[in-house]
Amino acid sequence: xxxxxxxxxxxxxxxxxxxxxxxxxxxxxxxxxxxxxxxxxxxxxxxxxxxxxxxxxxxxxxxxxxxxxxxxxxxxxxxxxxxxxxxxxxxxxxxxxxxxxxxxxxxxxxxxxxxxxxxxxxxxxxxxxxxxxxxxxxxxxxxxxxxxxxxxxxxxxxxxxxxxxxxxxxxxxxxxxxxxxxxxxxxxxxxxxxxxxxxxxxxxxxxxxxxxxxxxxxxxxxxxxxxxxxxxxxxxxxxxxxxxxxxxxxxxxxxxxxxxxxxxxxxxxxxxxxxxxxxxxxxxxxxxxxxxxxxxxxxxxxxxxxxxxxxxxxxxxxxxxxxxxxxxxxxxxxxxxxxxxxxxxxxxxxxxxxxxxxxxxxxxxxxxxxxxxxxxxxxxxxxxxxxxxxxxxxxxxxxxxxxxxxxxxxxxxxxxxxxxxxxxxxxxxxxxxxxxxxxxxxxxxxxxxxxxxxxxxxxxxxxxxxxxxxxxxxxxxxxxxxxxxxxxxxxxxxxxxxxxxxxxxxxxxxxxxxxxxxxxx
Length: 521
Description:
43% of the residues lie in helices and 13% in strands.
């Protein structure tokens, strides 16, 4: 393992020493999309480059606060150079913490690419860096829980400082509210981390994270469960300074319910497995209530139909759950989610769209200060809701494809990176117009690190192993087999080839970032 770390560092140093400083970060042009589909060695070389450059985002004051160990949503970029622009997003949420915890955990497991991300300058010291950050992180969680016991161990979107979480961010404090979806993602990252810490002899740290998870187990039902199978998407906390047993909670009007088969299902599973249910009938109500939105639909491709799970917008973001829980261990789920990526890639290939769709920050002009978030990015034919955005694509649109077929996912990711100003001194850029006329000059956890996490396989396999040890896996397997088999009696298009890029993003309008660029100031 130590030899592997040294070899990777040498690989990066040789690459950097032979490249032009102005374009060294634009490594995508030195790879072929066709080679990335099938050649494992080329895939490995490409992944090392991705991890190294995305690691430039994993720095104090850009993507993380090193003193508190907490993530920050991201940072604005200079629209012309790609260096840091004016505007640090010193807020974060449990969903960003999820991605960070996963990559820190994979570093403890000696994954060389995770190590490059965590400490790109000294990957041989990444294990120690990861432990240091994890220690600071749990201290920040504990401090928040003590200061704001009303959240019951769950987190709102919040402000980040050197001292930790200083309070809920804009829009989360009047009234005080907390989301189940983001917290559900963090839960299933902490869950395997506890085992990894124990396996490596870090018992005190493991116990502290287990206490965090146990606090969430105790309070999940009281804070988010409404009865009758209904799970609140966003809950109002009556008094953030009063513990849950003496507190009151209400669903935020208009925020909806966690009643779909997308990323929110992660929290549904947490409730199912650990809620103090009165009986099995009450427990089953969650799945009964959710059934209406688990729907089979056929994508009408040129050579035949492909049966998939209907999406909300069919944004790639909706597939977070396959990063975290062992859906792909279940034959019917693996077949369905493989078809989902067939349809996603075929749609862009047939329609000559140079990338894949996911909810992301919108592109803007040079002088944009505030960024608009585009949720409704997807495939209309496969969506419940109207899909209004078909112009903006993002590198992380391919993240669920990585989990299903790494090579195909890399081909799509690579194709977007070839676009103008899509690679810079802090790694990949947020998003771009399909016609190459504008970008979102921004760098965030969602658009960058969801991709890297998926490239490294997510944590669904180790979560499955821990569930088997704990005795909860059989419940998961039983319910998911039952629910999906009932709604998908027939799957069409399982022999349909994945789609590959058939169009490029024009590069003549914007040009490229300068890899030597630093801060705007």
